[in-house]
Design a protein that fits this description.
By secondary structure, the protein is of the alpha/beta class. It is 37% helix and 24% strand. A hairpin with a 2-residue loop joins strand 1 (19-30) and strand 2 (33-44). It is globular.
Length: 262
Protein backbone atom coordinates (compact mmCIF):
# COMPACT_ATOMS: atom_id res chain seq x y z
CA UNK A 1 0.00 0.00 0.00
CA UNK A 2 1.38 3.42 -0.90
CA UNK A 3 1.45 6.33 1.53
CA UNK A 4 -1.41 7.99 -0.30
CA UNK A 5 -3.50 4.82 -0.25
CA UNK A 6 -2.80 4.22 3.43
CA UNK A 7 -3.60 7.83 4.31
CA UNK A 8 -7.12 7.58 2.95
CA UNK A 9 -7.77 3.88 3.18
CA UNK A 10 -10.97 4.29 5.22
CA UNK A 11 -12.78 1.13 6.38
CA UNK A 12 -11.13 -2.16 5.40
CA UNK A 13 -12.49 -4.05 2.39
CA UNK A 14 -14.74 -7.06 2.73
CA UNK A 15 -18.38 -7.88 3.52
CA UNK A 16 -20.10 -5.72 6.13
CA UNK A 17 -20.78 -8.72 8.36
CA UNK A 18 -17.04 -9.11 9.02
CA UNK A 19 -17.08 -5.83 10.96
CA UNK A 20 -17.90 -5.87 14.65
CA UNK A 21 -17.91 -2.06 14.87
CA UNK A 22 -18.73 0.29 12.02
CA UNK A 23 -18.10 4.02 12.40
CA UNK A 24 -19.31 6.26 9.59
CA UNK A 25 -18.75 10.01 9.32
CA UNK A 26 -18.27 10.38 13.08
CA UNK A 27 -18.15 13.97 14.26
CA UNK A 28 -18.06 15.45 17.77
CA UNK A 29 -18.29 19.16 18.54
CA UNK A 30 -18.19 20.99 21.85
CA UNK A 31 -19.54 24.43 21.03
CA UNK A 32 -17.15 25.81 18.45
CA UNK A 33 -14.49 23.17 19.12
CA UNK A 34 -14.30 20.24 16.70
CA UNK A 35 -12.99 17.18 18.57
CA UNK A 36 -13.65 14.67 15.77
CA UNK A 37 -14.40 15.41 12.14
CA UNK A 38 -15.83 12.88 9.67
CA UNK A 39 -14.03 9.76 10.97
CA UNK A 40 -14.96 6.42 9.39
CA UNK A 41 -13.49 3.17 10.58
CA UNK A 42 -14.29 -0.53 11.00
CA UNK A 43 -13.13 -2.94 13.68
CA UNK A 44 -13.14 -6.55 12.55
CA UNK A 45 -14.24 -9.42 14.71
CA UNK A 46 -11.42 -10.94 16.73
CA UNK A 47 -8.69 -8.38 16.04
CA UNK A 48 -6.49 -6.14 18.16
CA UNK A 49 -6.72 -2.60 16.85
CA UNK A 50 -4.63 0.34 18.06
CA UNK A 51 -5.71 3.97 18.13
CA UNK A 52 -2.77 6.36 18.10
CA UNK A 53 -2.04 10.03 17.54
CA UNK A 54 -0.49 13.07 19.25
CA UNK A 55 -2.06 14.62 22.35
CA UNK A 56 -5.30 16.32 21.40
CA UNK A 57 -5.77 14.10 18.34
CA UNK A 58 -9.26 13.00 19.45
CA UNK A 59 -8.46 9.54 20.77
CA UNK A 60 -10.27 9.94 24.10
CA UNK A 61 -13.27 11.47 22.36
CA UNK A 62 -13.42 8.52 19.97
CA UNK A 63 -13.30 6.11 22.92
CA UNK A 64 -16.02 8.02 24.75
CA UNK A 65 -18.35 7.75 21.77
CA UNK A 66 -17.67 4.04 21.16
CA UNK A 67 -18.18 3.28 24.87
CA UNK A 68 -21.41 5.29 24.98
CA UNK A 69 -20.14 7.98 27.36
CA UNK A 70 -21.68 10.60 25.09
CA UNK A 71 -23.37 10.65 21.66
CA UNK A 72 -21.71 11.93 18.48
CA UNK A 73 -22.72 15.27 16.99
CA UNK A 74 -22.90 13.64 13.56
CA UNK A 75 -22.36 10.27 11.92
CA UNK A 76 -23.46 6.76 12.80
CA UNK A 77 -22.16 3.98 15.05
CA UNK A 78 -23.08 0.33 14.51
CA UNK A 79 -22.22 -2.64 16.70
CA UNK A 80 -22.77 -6.17 15.37
CA UNK A 81 -24.94 -4.64 12.65
CA UNK A 82 -27.17 -2.75 15.09
CA UNK A 83 -27.30 1.04 14.97
CA UNK A 84 -26.48 2.21 18.50
CA UNK A 85 -25.90 5.88 17.75
CA UNK A 86 -26.98 7.90 20.79
CA UNK A 87 -28.14 4.86 22.79
CA UNK A 88 -27.94 5.19 26.62
CA UNK A 89 -24.57 4.23 28.07
CA UNK A 90 -25.87 1.30 30.13
CA UNK A 91 -27.07 -0.40 26.95
CA UNK A 92 -23.51 -0.44 25.55
CA UNK A 93 -22.34 -2.65 28.40
CA UNK A 94 -25.31 -4.96 28.01
CA UNK A 95 -24.58 -5.28 24.28
CA UNK A 96 -21.05 -6.43 25.08
CA UNK A 97 -18.88 -3.29 25.08
CA UNK A 98 -16.63 -2.80 28.10
CA UNK A 99 -13.92 -0.26 28.86
CA UNK A 100 -10.92 -0.04 31.13
CA UNK A 101 -9.93 3.51 31.99
CA UNK A 102 -6.74 5.56 31.64
CA UNK A 103 -6.85 6.33 35.37
CA UNK A 104 -7.32 3.29 37.60
CA UNK A 105 -11.03 3.02 38.35
CA UNK A 106 -11.46 0.46 41.14
CA UNK A 107 -13.26 0.57 44.48
CA UNK A 108 -10.29 1.18 46.75
CA UNK A 109 -12.10 0.23 49.97
CA UNK A 110 -13.25 -3.16 48.64
CA UNK A 111 -11.11 -6.26 48.30
CA UNK A 112 -9.94 -7.38 44.87
CA UNK A 113 -12.47 -10.22 44.98
CA UNK A 114 -15.32 -7.90 45.94
CA UNK A 115 -14.46 -5.52 43.10
CA UNK A 116 -14.76 -8.28 40.51
CA UNK A 117 -17.79 -9.93 42.12
CA UNK A 118 -19.72 -6.64 42.19
CA UNK A 119 -18.89 -6.08 38.52
CA UNK A 120 -20.11 -9.58 37.65
CA UNK A 121 -23.29 -9.10 39.67
CA UNK A 122 -24.06 -5.82 37.87
CA UNK A 123 -23.95 -7.77 34.62
CA UNK A 124 -26.57 -10.20 35.93
CA UNK A 125 -29.11 -7.74 37.32
CA UNK A 126 -29.25 -4.06 38.13
CA UNK A 127 -32.03 -4.28 40.72
CA UNK A 128 -31.94 -7.61 42.53
CA UNK A 129 -32.60 -7.21 46.24
CA UNK A 130 -32.56 -10.89 47.14
CA UNK A 131 -29.93 -12.93 45.32
CA UNK A 132 -30.14 -16.75 45.70
CA UNK A 133 -27.18 -18.29 47.53
CA UNK A 134 -26.37 -20.53 44.54
CA UNK A 135 -26.11 -17.49 42.34
CA UNK A 136 -23.81 -15.77 44.84
CA UNK A 137 -21.58 -18.85 44.90
CA UNK A 138 -21.43 -18.81 41.12
CA UNK A 139 -20.49 -15.12 41.10
CA UNK A 140 -17.79 -15.74 43.69
CA UNK A 141 -16.34 -18.57 41.61
CA UNK A 142 -16.37 -16.39 38.52
CA UNK A 143 -14.59 -13.61 40.41
CA UNK A 144 -11.90 -16.06 41.53
CA UNK A 145 -11.48 -17.33 37.96
CA UNK A 146 -11.12 -13.81 36.57
CA UNK A 147 -8.58 -12.84 39.22
CA UNK A 148 -6.55 -15.89 38.27
CA UNK A 149 -6.90 -14.99 34.59
CA UNK A 150 -5.27 -11.59 35.10
CA UNK A 151 -2.53 -12.88 37.39
CA UNK A 152 -4.04 -11.94 40.74
CA UNK A 153 -4.73 -15.41 42.11
CA UNK A 154 -4.23 -15.43 45.87
CA UNK A 155 -4.78 -11.67 46.21
CA UNK A 156 -8.57 -11.71 46.32
CA UNK A 157 -8.78 -10.90 50.03
CA UNK A 158 -6.44 -7.94 49.78
CA UNK A 159 -8.00 -4.44 49.72
CA UNK A 160 -7.62 -2.84 46.30
CA UNK A 161 -5.91 0.14 47.94
CA UNK A 162 -3.09 -2.16 49.08
CA UNK A 163 -2.35 -3.51 45.60
CA UNK A 164 0.59 -2.23 43.56
CA UNK A 165 -0.25 0.03 40.62
CA UNK A 166 0.21 -2.70 38.03
CA UNK A 167 -1.96 -5.05 40.09
CA UNK A 168 -4.70 -2.43 40.27
CA UNK A 169 -4.58 -2.10 36.48
CA UNK A 170 -4.91 -5.87 36.16
CA UNK A 171 -7.82 -5.79 38.62
CA UNK A 172 -9.58 -3.22 36.46
CA UNK A 173 -9.20 -5.53 33.47
CA UNK A 174 -10.77 -8.36 35.49
CA UNK A 175 -13.68 -6.04 36.34
CA UNK A 176 -14.12 -5.20 32.66
CA UNK A 177 -14.08 -8.89 31.75
CA UNK A 178 -16.78 -9.60 34.34
CA UNK A 179 -19.33 -8.07 31.96
CA UNK A 180 -18.41 -10.72 29.37
CA UNK A 181 -17.56 -8.20 26.65
CA UNK A 182 -17.46 -8.88 22.93
CA UNK A 183 -15.47 -5.66 22.50
CA UNK A 184 -12.92 -4.53 25.09
CA UNK A 185 -11.76 -0.91 25.01
CA UNK A 186 -8.45 -0.31 26.80
CA UNK A 187 -7.42 3.29 27.44
CA UNK A 188 -3.64 3.37 28.06
CA UNK A 189 -3.60 0.01 29.86
CA UNK A 190 0.11 0.29 30.75
CA UNK A 191 0.08 3.89 32.01
CA UNK A 192 2.40 4.23 34.99
CA UNK A 193 3.63 0.66 34.75
CA UNK A 194 7.19 -0.55 35.05
CA UNK A 195 8.78 -2.35 32.07
CA UNK A 196 8.11 -5.72 33.71
CA UNK A 197 4.47 -4.84 34.46
CA UNK A 198 4.11 -3.61 30.88
CA UNK A 199 5.34 -6.95 29.49
CA UNK A 200 2.86 -8.82 31.69
CA UNK A 201 0.01 -6.61 30.49
CA UNK A 202 1.05 -7.06 26.84
CA UNK A 203 0.90 -10.84 27.25
CA UNK A 204 -2.51 -10.55 28.91
CA UNK A 205 -3.88 -8.39 26.08
CA UNK A 206 -2.73 -10.94 23.49
CA UNK A 207 -4.49 -13.70 25.46
CA UNK A 208 -7.69 -11.69 25.78
CA UNK A 209 -7.72 -10.91 22.06
CA UNK A 210 -8.02 -14.61 21.27
CA UNK A 211 -11.63 -14.46 22.54
CA UNK A 212 -12.81 -10.93 21.66
CA UNK A 213 -12.01 -7.77 19.72
CA UNK A 214 -9.78 -5.25 21.50
CA UNK A 215 -9.22 -1.55 20.77
CA UNK A 216 -6.24 0.02 22.53
CA UNK A 217 -5.29 3.65 23.05
CA UNK A 218 -1.64 3.63 24.04
CA UNK A 219 1.33 5.99 23.82
CA UNK A 220 3.96 3.25 24.05
CA UNK A 221 4.66 2.64 20.38
CA UNK A 222 6.60 -0.57 20.95
CA UNK A 223 3.53 -2.04 22.62
CA UNK A 224 0.98 -1.12 19.94
CA UNK A 225 3.32 -2.00 17.09
CA UNK A 226 4.04 -5.35 18.71
CA UNK A 227 0.54 -6.60 19.46
CA UNK A 228 -1.88 -4.71 17.19
CA UNK A 229 -2.87 -6.10 13.82
CA UNK A 230 -4.08 -2.75 12.56
CA UNK A 231 -3.70 0.89 13.58
CA UNK A 232 -5.86 3.97 13.14
CA UNK A 233 -4.04 7.31 13.33
CA UNK A 234 -5.88 10.50 14.27
CA UNK A 235 -4.55 14.05 14.00
CA UNK A 236 -6.46 17.16 15.14
CA UNK A 237 -9.64 15.07 15.26
CA UNK A 238 -9.31 13.90 11.67
CA UNK A 239 -8.56 10.53 10.11
CA UNK A 240 -4.89 10.56 9.05
CA UNK A 241 -4.01 6.97 8.22
CA UNK A 242 -5.00 3.34 8.69
CA UNK A 243 -3.01 0.19 8.10
CA UNK A 244 -0.82 -2.53 9.51
CA UNK A 245 2.05 -1.56 11.83
CA UNK A 246 4.50 -1.86 8.91
CA UNK A 247 2.33 0.38 6.73
CA UNK A 248 2.02 2.97 9.48
CA UNK A 249 5.79 2.95 10.09
CA UNK A 250 6.34 3.61 6.37
CA UNK A 251 3.73 6.36 6.10
CA UNK A 252 5.39 9.73 5.55
CA UNK A 253 2.48 11.73 6.98
CA UNK A 254 2.47 9.69 10.18
CA UNK A 255 6.22 10.07 10.62
CA UNK A 256 5.88 13.81 10.10
CA UNK A 257 3.04 14.59 12.52
CA UNK A 258 3.37 11.79 15.08
CA UNK A 259 6.84 10.35 15.08
CA UNK A 260 8.49 13.75 14.53
CA UNK A 261 10.38 12.73 11.41
CA UNK A 262 10.69 14.59 8.11
Amino acid sequence: MTNAESTRAGPPPGPADTALVQVRGLGVRFGGIVALDDVSFDVRRGEVCGLIGPNGAGKSTFFNVVSGAFPPSSGRLKFQGQDITGAPQHSFARLGISKSFQITNVFQQLTAHENVRVSAQMRRSRYELFTPRASLNELAERADALLERVGLAGLGARPAADLAHGQQRALEVAMALASEPVLLLMDEPTAGMSPEETRVMMDLIVELAAERSVIIVEHKMKLVMGICERLLVLHHGEFLAEGTPDEIRANADVRRVYLGQS
